[in-house]
Write a structure and sequence with these properties.
Length: 86
Amino acid sequence: MPFSIYVGNLPWSTTPEDLRALFEPYGEVENARIITDRETGRSRGFGFVDMADEEAARRAIAELHNYEYGGRPLTVNEAQARQGGM
């Protein structure tokens, strides 16, 4: 089962490919996605990365949390399950 990572405070211009490239030096990235606004299609400034190996994911979290990316300090931590519904 992949280990899911939340990545916040992303520059608006960040693409899923950019996000994947940021995490690939730490290990295999199974999926990288940017969350977009349903109505406008624009980035909401955060995304998720799924990594195959938990140890690699934890190392990426430790090294990339507060890492300056595109002039902004990233918020990187273990993704939490969604609470409730919409």
